[in-house]
Specification:
- With 555 residues, the chain is of the alpha/beta class.
- It is 56% helix and 10% strand.
- The strands form four sheets. A four-stranded mixed β-sheet has the order 1-2-4-3, sandwiched between helices. Strands 5-8-9 form a three-stranded parallel β-sheet, sandwiched between helices.
- A hairpin with a 2-residue loop joins strand 1 and strand 2.
- Helix 8 packs across helix 11.
- The two termini are 49 Å apart.
Length: 555
C-alpha cells in the first residue's frame, strides 16, 4: 500500500513537472515624487512603482488611505496607456504601487499622469529626472487633465528642492519662486520632460474619411427625408442645414435636424395624455425591435462604432423610460432614427470579426474609471453632471448583462463629459490640444483598418461648435469624445486580427440583404476551449502581487 502511495506521488510529481514551464520574471522599480495636499498644505508624497514582466494586466495598490479615492482604477488606466505607448499589450505586465505613509493624500487620480510616465520608463529602461515632479490626471487617450490644489503642490515641491514641476494646461500658479513650472497637455509631453525621450506620433493625414462621408451622408438623407415628410418646417433653420450640407458637414446637419424632431415631438407629447402615452409605448417598442435586429448583425472592424452608436441610442430610450420624469418626445425622436443607424451597421458588417470576449476586461477598466472620474468631479469640485449617476448605473447594468460594447460606450461618454467639465476653467487652451489628440488617435486606429465613423462624427460636431466662437466648452467635449472613442475602438480593432473574416455583401435596391449569422455571446468560450492556456503564470503573479502588497502594508 505504501509502495502504491509512493508511486502515485512520484507519478504526480512527474506530471506536474511536465506541465511546468520555466519563466523569467523581470522586476523593476522606481520612486516618484508625487504631489499631494494634506491638512497642513502641500506635500511631496513618494510612491514606489514596481513593474513585473510577464504579468496579469493588473495594477495593485498598497498604502491606503494615503492612496485616495479612485487611485486603483487610475493606476489601471496608467498601466493601459503606458503599455500602448510602448507597443506591448498591457496584459504582459503587473504593476505594484506602494504609497509611503503621510498625513497628506493623493486625491484620486491626480498622480496618475506621473505614474503613467514611471511605468513607461520602466517598460523601456529609461531614467526619470530626480529634480522634476508632476501632477495631473491621465485620460485613456493620453490627454493630461486638471487637478486641484496645484498652487499648494508646487509650493511643497519648491520647499523640497525640486527644480521643475509639470502641471496641466491652464493651472500654472504665479508668485512661487525658485521653481520652474511647465504646462503640459499630453502624456508624450510629460515623458519628454521627465525622461528626455521624444515619442513620435502618426500624422493626422493618415486618417481616411471616405467611409465616414458616405455613412454620414446616408444618415443625413434619411433623417432629412423623414423631417420633410413628417414635420415639414418650423423646427430647424433650413438655411443652416443647407449651408452645412454644402460644406459636407452632414453629421452636424443631421444632429441639428434630430434636435428639431425632439422639439416637435415634445410639443406633440404635451398636447394630451393619450398622445404622450402612445409616443412612450411606440418608442419603447421600436427600441426593443432595434435591439433584436442589432443582435443579429456580426460586429466587425468596419461596423463596430455603428453598432456602438446604435446600442447607445437604444439605451438612451430605455434610460429615458426609466427616469423619474420620462420625456416621451425625446424618446420617440431617438427611436425613429434607430433604423437608419442599424441599416448602416448591417451594410458595413464585413471584414475581420471582432473578438467580443476580449472586450470584457477593457470594458471593466473603462467602467471603473468612469466611476472614478465622476466621483472625483463631484467630491473634489462639487460638480454634478445632470443625470450621470444614473448613466453610471446603466453602464454597470450593461456590463453585468455581458453587453460590453454598450457598457464601454456609456463609460466613454461619462469620462469625456467629466474631463471636459474639469477643463472648463481653460477650455480655449485645451481645444487645439484635444483636437490634435483626437486626430492622432484616429490615425493610429486607421492603421489597423478602423473606419473612425464615430470619432469623425464627434470631431465634425466639435468643429461646428468651435466655429460658433462662444461655445468652446461644447466643442471641447466633442473633441475629447472623438479622441477617447478612437482610442478604445482602435484598441479593439487592432486586436481583431486572425479571426473570421466576412466578405462584403452586395446591397442593391433590388435585392434584400441576407440575414447575417447570429453573433456568439460575449463570454461564449467554454472552459474546455480556454483550458489550453497555462494557469501557472497568472497564479504565480497573483501570489507575488499579494505577497508584495502584504509586505508593503506591514512596513
Amino acid at each position: 500500500m505504501r509502495k502504491v502511495a509512493v508511486l502515485t506521488l512520484i507519478l504526480a510529481f512527474i506530471l506536474l513537472a511536465a506541465g511546468w514551464q520555466t519563466y523569467t520574471i523581470k522586476v523593476a522599480s522606481v520612486e516618484i515624487n508625487a504631489l499631494a495636499v494634506g491638512p497642513s498644505g502641500g506635500a511631496v508624497l513618494p510612491i514606489k512603482v514596481t513593474l513585473l514582466t510577464p504579468g496579469d494586466g493588473r495594477a495593485y495598490v498598497a498604502g491606503v488611505p494615503e492612496a485616495g479615492q479612485g487611485f486603483g482604477p487610475s493606476a489601471q488606466i496608467a498601466l493601459y496607456v503606458a503599455s500602448r505607448l510602448s507597443g506591448v499589450p498591457y496584459t504582459n505586465y503587473t504593476a505594484l504601487l506602494r504609497v509611503v505613509a503621510s498625513d497628506a493624500q493623493v486625491g484620486g487620480p491626480s498622480a496618475s499622469g506621473y505614474i503613467t510616465v514611471a511605468l513607461y520608463a520602466l517598460m523601456n529602461g529609461l531614467q526619470l529626472r530626480n529634480d522634476t515632479a508632476m501632477t495631473g490626471i491621465i485620460l485613456p487617450d493620453g490627454l493630461i487633465g486638471p487637478v486641484s490644489g496645484v498652487s499648494q503642490k508646487v509650493s511643497a515641491a519648491a520647499a523640497q528642492g525640486i527644480k521643475t514641476v509639470l502641471v496641466p494646461i491652464g493651472e500654472a500658479p504665479s508668485g512661487i519662486r525658485g521653481i520652474r513650472v511647465i504646462e503640459i497637455g499630453t502624456v508624450e509631453d510629460a515623458i519628454y520632460y521627465l525622461t528626455g525621450r521624444r515619442i513620435e506620433t502618426l500624422p493626422p493625414t493618415a486618417v481616411d474619411d471616405s467611409a465616414f462621408k458616405t455613412i454620414s451622408r446616408d444618415l443625413f438623407n434619411a433623417i432629412y427625408s423623414y423631417y420633410n415628410q413628417t414635420v415639414g418646417r418650423g423646427y430647424v433653420d433650413t438655411a443652416t442645414i443647407e449651408r452645412l450640407k454644402s460644406q459636407g458637414y452632414y453629421y452636424a446637419a443631421a444632429s441639428l435636424i434630430y434636435q428639431g424632431l425632439v422639439n416637435y415631438y415634445k410639443e406633440q407629447a404635451s398636447s394630451s395624455r393619450r398622445v404622450y402615452r402612445n409616443l412612450y409605448d411606440q418608442a419603447l417598442q421600436m427600441a426593443k425591435n432595434a435591439e433584436a435586429d442589432l443582435a443579429q448583425i456580426p460586429i466587425t472592424i468596419n461596423n463596430i462604432d455603428l453598432v456602438v452608436a446604435s446600442y447607445t441610442r437604444i439605451y438612451e430610450v430605455y434610460l429615458g423610460a426609466n427616469s423619474t420624469n420620462p420625456d416621451a418626445g425625446m424618446m420617440y425622436a431617438r427611436a425613429i432614427t434607430l433604423k437608419s443607424w442599424i441599416d448602416e451597421a448591417r451594410k458595413m458588417a464585413y471584414g475581420p470579426v471582432v473578438n467580443e470576449t476580449g472586450l470584457a476586461e477593457v470594458a471593466r477598466m473603462y467602467l471603473d474609471y468612469a466611476k472614478t472620474m465622476y466621483a472625483y468631479l463631484e467630491t473634489t469640485y462639487g460638480v454634478t453632471l445632470g443625470d450621470y449617476a444614473t448613466a453610471v448605473q446603466l453602464a454597470e447594468s450593461l456590463y453585468q448583462r455581458g453587453l460590453y460594447l454598450a457598457s464601454m460606450a456609456n463609460s466613454i461618454e461619462i469620462i469625456a463629459e467629466s474631463a471636459s467639465a474639469l477643463m472648463s476653467s481653460a477650455p480655449d487652451k485645451y481645444l487645439q490640444v484635444a483636437r490634435e489628440r483626437a486626430l492622432t488617435n484616429m490615425a493610429r486606429a486607421a492603421a489597423c483598418g478602423y473606419t473612425n465613423t464615430l470619432p469623425l462624427s464627434y470631431l465634425q460636431f466639435g468643429d461646428y461648435f468651435s466655429a460658433q466662437g462662444n461655445v468652446a466648452q461644447n466643442a471641447l467635449a466633442y473633441y475629447i469624445m472623438a479622441s477617447i472613442y478612437s482610442t478604445a475602438m482602435g484598441d479593439v480593432v487592432c486586436n481583431a486580427k486572425g479571426g473570421r473574416v466576412i466578405p462584403r455583401a452586395n446591397f442593391s435596391a433590388e435585392t434584400q440583404a441576407p440575414t447575417p449569422a447570429p453573433v456568439t455571446t460575449p463570454m461564449g468560450k467554454s472552459v474546455a476551449e480556454q483550458g489550453e492556456k497555462s494557469l501557472w503564470i497568472p497564479l504565480v503573479l497573483v501570489l507575488l502581487a499579494a505577497a508584495a502588497l502584504i509586505y508593503a502594508s506591514r512596513r
